[in-house]
Design brief:
- With about 475 residues, this protein is α+β, with helices and mostly antiparallel strands.
- The chain is about 65% helix and about 10% strand.
- The protein has 13 helices and nine strands.
- The strands form three sheets. Strands 5-6-7-9-8 form a five-stranded mixed beta sheet. Strands 1-2 form a two-stranded antiparallel sheet.
- Strand 6 and strand 7 form a beta hairpin.
- Helix 11 packs parallel to helix 12.
- It is elongated.
- The chain starts with a helix and ends in a 10-residue tail after the last strand.
Length: about 475
């Protein structure tokens, strides 16, 4: 078989599969067209009544509430329409952002209640369901019923045609012979057996029915598209919806970052008060006692106090170093995130296995590096303080071209939960502030795994020299 013959056969097979796919969508489209007819005119009746009542009652303010309810009814009909459109086999219409408000300040309940009246989303749904949907539904219903009638009626005409009528009103059945010639075309006599006339009628009806059924998939597809595209434009997702979502997520991320920073500052304040500050007070008292001992020429006691003071000073220094590691160590600024993470792993009392993405410092900016360092430092601190682990692992890998995964494992007691107001919840807020996600897997007695996934910044454009 030649290459051209193979290509022709392949194209023919693809066309046949496409035609069969259209046929598979016919039953759902027929059901949808019938339901859309009922739904469209029900929406028209409900919405025109609500709109008229609302406008008429505006003088007594109640009309505002009626109009708002009408908008919500339009939204309900729109959602039902787009949901039923899936019966046609066409792609689902993306869900729009009905609530387009970015902020929801306290005390704005009235404003939020009246928001549908100033939302283009709701007005588009109202216009579509009250005007466009009924008109399109009526047209497609008439076309679909006509085509089904031609197709099914034509192919079954031989079964239900009944007796033929003579010109004089009497009937003749197939097989009978006229006593005179049949007259057609303005009285031209033709000597034709009536059974032949019946046969011609049946053949013509059958031909019309076959043609109608053969073209039914395209007719059904056309009717489906007549419904789909106006709904896609007016009820589907708009570009402005994506902007609203992006702005809302940005606000949520900013609020999460602010909460995380606020918790971190409060915890730092508490740790400074409970740790270094108390040790410095103790150090001050020891130095005062040391002065008195030296004044009394008690050398042995003075040496003892000096040793205790040195111990307190060293402990204070260690605590301050530990606290500063969660803020921004000079190593992070001077040598980058990889070196800072290596220092964290080397200084952790629990042995840490480190696996870092090569070239990590080139993937993350300064803000993300600082946040990641803080998250890893806090997670390793939790491993030391709470997990009771004997070993831990730190993995930082790019899992997709623009996504980074940070994973901390330990073999401790497990049972860690991101309880609101505690460490893991604060870390989750900090990660959310970077538009990332934090997940915790910590079954009791089986260790803990914390996974952080962040979106990497898009690479900037490169300029050719």
């Amino acid at each position: 078989m030649s290459v051209n013959a193979v290509e022709m056969e392949s194209d023919h097979g693809a066309g046949r599969r496409g035609y069969l796919a259209l046929w598979r969508a016919v039953p759902g489209t027929v059901v949808y067209v019938g339901v859309a007819m009922v739904l469209g005119w029900a929406a028209f009746a409900a919405l025109i009544s609500g709109l008229s009542a609302g406008v008429g009652l505006l003088v007594v303010v109640v009309g505002l509430a009626v109009l708002v309810v009408t908008m919500w009814v339009a939204r309900g009909f729109a959602m039902a329409d787009t949901g039923l459109l899936r019966l046609t086999g066409l792609p689902p219409i993306p869900e729009p952002e009905w609530d387009r408000s970015v902020d929801a300040p306290a005390g704005a309940s009235v404003k939020r209640f009246l928001a549908p009246l100033i939302s283009a989303r709701y007005w588009a749904a109202l216009v579509h369901q009250m005007i466009i949907a009924p008109a399109v539904a009526t047209a497609t219903f008439v076309v679909m019923v006509t085509w089904l009638g031609l197709g099914l009626g034509g192919v079954s005409y031989f079964a239900w045609r009944g007796p033929l009528e003579r010109a004089d009103g009497t009937t003749v059945k197939s097989g009978e012979v006229f006593s005179g010639p049949v007259q057609i075309f303005g009285g031209i006599p033709l000597d034709i057996d009536p059974s032949h006339v019946v046969l011609v009628e049946v053949l013509i009806s059958l031909s019309v029915g076959i043609v109608a059924l053969a073209t039914l998939p395209w007719i059904a597809a056309g009717c489906a598209h007549l419904h789909y595209w106006p709904a896609r434009v007016m009820l589907g997702r708009w570009k402005s919806d994506d902007l609203v979502v992006a702005l809302r997520e940005e606000n949520l991320a900013r609020e999460a970052a602010i909460r995380a920073e606020d918790r971190s500052l409060h915890r730092l304040e508490r740790d400074l008060h409970d740790g270094p500050q108390q040790r410095l007070v103790r150090l001050q008292m020891d130095l005062a006692a040391l002065e008195r001992r030296i004044g009394d020429d008690d050398g042995t006691a003075a040496l003892t106090l000096a040793a205790e003071a040195r111990t307190q000073a060293q402990a204070t220094l260690d605590e301050l170093r530990a606290l500063s590691s969660g803020v921004a160590p000079p190593l992070l600024t001077d040598r980058g995130l990889t070196a800072a993470l290596e220092s964290l792993a080397a200084g952790c009392p629990v042995p840490v296995t480190l696996d870092v993405e090569p070239g990590l410092d080139g993937l993350v900016g300064a803000e993300m590096a600082r946040a990641l360092y803080f998250v890893v430092a806090e997670l390793l601190t939790n491993v030391v303080k709470h997990a009771g682990a004997t070993a831990a692992g730190l993995t930082v890998r790019r899992i997709e071209p623009q996504r980074l995964m940070v994973q901390v494992d330990d073999d401790g007691r497990g049972g860690a939960r991101p309880v609101p107001g505690h460490g893991l919840a604060g870390l989750a807020d900090r990660v959310h502030g970077l538009h990332g996600a934090l997940s915790v897997d910590s079954p009791d007695g089986a260790g803990t795994r914390v996974v952080v996934v962040l979106d990497l910044p898009e690479p900037g454009p490169t300029l050719n020299p």
